[in-house]
Design brief:
Layout (H helix, E strand, L loop, with lengths): L20 E4 L5 E6 L5 E8 L11 H7 L10 H10 L3 E3 L7 E8 L3 H13 L5 H18 L3 H14 L11 H5 L3 H11 L5 E7 L3 H10 L23 E4 L6 E9 L8 H12 L5 H9 L6 E7 L4 E10 L3 H17 L4 H17 L4 H13 L6 H11 L2 H11 L6 E5 L1
Parallel strand pairs: 2-6, 7-11
Antiparallel strand pairs: 1-2, 3-5, 3-6, 4-5, 8-10, 8-11, 9-10
Helix pairs in contact: 1-7, 3-8, 9-15, 10-11, 11-15
């Protein structure tokens, strides 16, 4: 090996999402299995369609999920934590807009030891009143901290403006929202939505027939029946506007500029994914080169697509010194205008393609990452071949097509603008 000579660079090609093997447990729950691992460890994720769109009161979905670990069946919260720790496992309860998830990492040969408390959470969670009070108090403190941060306030404000203050994707939490939570709300949410008919299971790692049989003996014996949660997105009647919220004590201002877009299933999603990356989705992006590298106004500036199951939005975000706000906003609109009026050159197109192909490659690096991609496709009701469609778009989209998308979706009159500082 000649260490003075760099290895050859090869283009990333032929990226395909490995298809999961699908099983059905005795209780009807579908299990998506990604068996690719070489180590005796598994990642088990249970996904309930029990997010904001399905809740009957604001914050109930997140609170219900947050209290599942606080005792269930014969297990106290301390006993659940001790069992997981003793057998080298971890359990998290990540919440997103559309679903409530339980994610368990465990050694394959210890999985049978840690599944009983997990099943107890699915059957008879305690929802102790004192833990609900503690949850509320913790989150009220976090809320007070968040409301002192311009970037958090700017995000809350722009999403509320885009979707509306009563929309599941638009409402914000306030102290009075927490004050309206009661234990009966959690019990109702759980009984209605945490059922066999309203969930899927995703397991990845070194999966054997014995593991599938174990799941069937444990989770497959869970028999809480219900119905699949339904949701009809309400009409959104909001119109672009500009807001400047003053926070006199801050030395920096947060800027958010964006608009409502669409979910992952929209025919223009893949192209907008590439366009957003070119604008502000990686370190060499146009916004980063201009506002960070050339102007020195900020440490970080980005653009992103925020997609949910039923909708989505696009926004640009940064934090700059108060004296740079006006020019930063002008430079952002300048870069948007360039996207709309001038097609990207071949060198930039190649750079964006290479970056995105590398990013997509990491999404397939190992069984756990693949399992998460599979979970995303199922949870957002997208077909598995969507991944290959995204890869094909990255490889083949032209500069002219990106310019057309910029003119379609990045007109200044269609953008909301929020500045907090």
């Amino acid at each position: 090996m000649n260490r003075k000579q760099a290895p050859p660079i090869h283009a990333v090609t032929d990226l395909r999402l490995p298809r999961p093997v699908i099983h059905t447990l005795d209780n009807g729950v579908t299990v998506y299995t990604t068996s690719m691992g070489t180590q005796d460890v598994v990642r088990l994720e249970i996904v309930f369609h029990a997010g904001r769109p399905q809740e009957h009161k604001p914050l109930v979905s997140r609170t219900t999920l947050g209290l599942l670990r606080e005792g269930a069946g014969p297990y106290s919260a301390a006993e659940i934590a001790e069992i997981l720790d003793y057998y080298g496992s971890s359990l998290s309860t990540p919440f997103n807009m559309d679903s409530a998830n339980l994610v368990l990492y465990a050694l394959s040969h210890q999985l049978d030891k840690v599944l009983p408390p997990l099943v107890a959470m699915l059957e008879t969670p305690a929802f102790p009143a004192e833990e609900l009070d503690a949850f509320i108090q913790r989150n009220l403190k976090l809320l007070a901290e968040d409301l002192s941060k311009p970037d958090v306030v700017a995000y809350r404000q722009i999403t509320e403006l885009i979707f509306g203050p009563s929309h599941p994707y638009g409402y914000n939490s306030w102290p009075e929202t927490y004050a309206q939570l009661h234990r009966d709300d959690l019990v109702h949410h759980f009984n209605t939505l945490y059922t066999c008919d309203n969930c899927e299971i995703f397991i990845s790692g070194k999966i054997t027939p014995e593991i599938i049989a174990l799941l069937n003996r444990t989770i497959g014996a869970w028999n809480r029946k219900g119905k699949v949660a339904s949701y009809l997105p309400p009409p959104i009647h909001t119109y672009p506007e500009k807001q400047w919220l003053t926070k006199p004590s801050g030395v920096q201002s947060a800027i958010r500029i964006g608009r409502r877009l669409f979910d992952r299933r929209h025919p223009d999603y893949c192209g907008m994914f590439v366009l957003s990356t070119m604008l502000g989705g990686y370190f060499g992006s146009r916004l980063m080169a201009n506002i960070r590298e050339e102007k020195g106004y900020t440490y970080n500036i980005y653009s992103t697509l925020d997609t949910m199951r039923y909708d989505g939005c696009f926004y640009i975000g940064t934090e700059v010194g108060n004296e740079f706000v006006k020019d930063t906003v002008q430079q952002i609109y300048k870069e948007i205008e360039l996207l709309r009026t001038q097609p990207a050159d071949a060198e930039e197109m190649d750079m964006v393609r290479s970056y995105l192909m590398g990013s997509l490659l990491t999404m397939l690096d190992g069984p756990f990452n693949v399992g998460e991609v599979v979970r995303t496709m199922v949870a957002e009701d997208a077909p598995f071949h969507f991944f290959e469609e995204l890869v094909a778009t990255v490889e083949t989209i032209s500069a002219q097509q990106l310019q057309e998308l910029a003119n379609r979706y990045l007109q200044p009159d269609d953008l909301w603008e929020v500045i907090v500082g």
